[in-house]
Amino acid sequence: MTERQAQHDILVKPSHDERARQELCQAMRSHLLGDVQAGTETIFESRVHPAFKKENGRAMKDRHEIRRAMTPDPFYRVFSASLRSTQELMWDSVIDTVEREMPRLQTEYKKLHNQAKGTLTLDPDLDIPRYHAAADIHLQPGGYHTDLAEDDLSAGAIFDRALYIYGDGKFGPYSDAMGHMVSGQVKALYPDFAPKRILDMGCTSGNSTLVYVDAFPEAEVHAIDIGAPCLRYAHARAETLNKTVHFAQANAAETQYEDESFDLIVSHILFHETGRSALTNIMRECHRLLKPGGMMVHLDIPQDRHCEKMYESFLWDWEAYNNNETFAVVLRSLDYEEEAVTAGFVRDDVSIEDVAVGWPLLVGKKAA
Ligand SMILES: C[S@@+](CC[C@H](N)C(=O)[O-])C[C@H]1O[C@@H](n2cnc3c(N)ncnc32)[C@H](O)[C@@H]1O
């Protein structure tokens, strides 16, 4: 049994009926990703793979062959369509609450902003990358960046509540497990490392960002995202939770910071939602922004090479093909280390550290 989502002034408060709908989505996802998903593997082993072997005289060689063979299977189709519908229902159910709560959230936001210790710098002229504007990533209507009104914070409010439902609470009451994974691993690997300035790239509602305020109390913590409504929400959330963070609207591939501004740059599941050239440019920007001896640390979903079973790897691609996380399928086969070397890091200073549940952490240290 997971703990309930931690309450604070800027988190939406669902009514009884809204909560019931949201918890139904949470339970549906959990059921589909539990017994039903396990059932798809049984179907694969018992009928789809044997039929493939009979027809081709060999076993399947990769996750793409599994996907092509599983897609027409009736059991898999019911699983996949139900998961997609649950995702749509999740947004619907949360958006109802956010729309109803918006006047209260706006009032709270203004109050928190006026007495803030941290800062918020927005750039209304920022170009939204095409990979964001062209499709609603993981089906969130309007994505991370669409402003629906003046001083809008709905995208952040929606994301914060939906992330908890999507993760079935497994990211913790503050949905900050990824921040703990990364900061914990940095401390374990480099116990003497004491960053003075930290940047979190692709912070969304700042859930992971806030962990760094406590993990490195001597450091000044900065966070960027392309989405203004996420940043307004993140700023208010940080203030109400009494954490000082400097948020700015910026493209991680091309920021406004000076060379060698940071000792530590982190990201949490940013890369799988970017694009091929964006990933290269973000790593180059990390190299430019790091002080000599500084470190970039990026956490993302398991790559093909990190999956013990080909079937598990195929399941990880579901989001790419059915949930508008298009780039994830490319990222999952990418040579991360080579990308970092192309961006300027020395090969011996780049490593992949496996953290909990097999999620890889790319670590790149800038030469001193
Ligand atoms: C999956 S979310 C990250 C979740 C968040 N880091 C957390 O720990 O909860 C990806 C975020 O990256 C942002 N993003 C994508 N491309 C970006 C870019 N080029 N520069 C800055 N932010 C970007 C998106 O707007 C989105 O908020």
Tags for this model:
368 residues; alpha/beta; Rossmann fold; eight-stranded mixed β-sheet; 13 helices; 8 strands; 12% strand; globular; binds S-adenosylmethionine
The averaged pLDDT comes out at 96
**What is the overall number of helices?**
13
| SS-derived structural category | alpha/beta
| Major β-sheet profile | 8 strands, mixed
Number of strands: 8
Helix % is 40-55%
Number of domains: 1
Low-confidence stretches: none
Strand residue percentage: 5-15%
CATH class category name:
Alpha Beta
Radius of gyration: 21 Å
Architecture overview:
This protein is α/β, with parallel strands linked by helices and 368 residues long. The chain has 13 helices and 8 strands. It has one domain (1-368): Vaccinia Virus protein VP39 (Rossmann fold), CATH 3.40.50. Strands 1-4-3-2-5-6-8-7 form an 8-stranded mixed beta sheet, sandwiched between helices. Helix 2 (63-70) crosses helix 10 and helix 5 (154-166) packs across helix 8 (228-240). The longest helix is centred in the first third of the chain and has 41 residues, at 16-56. It is globular, with a radius of gyration of 21 Å. The structure holds S-adenosylmethionine.
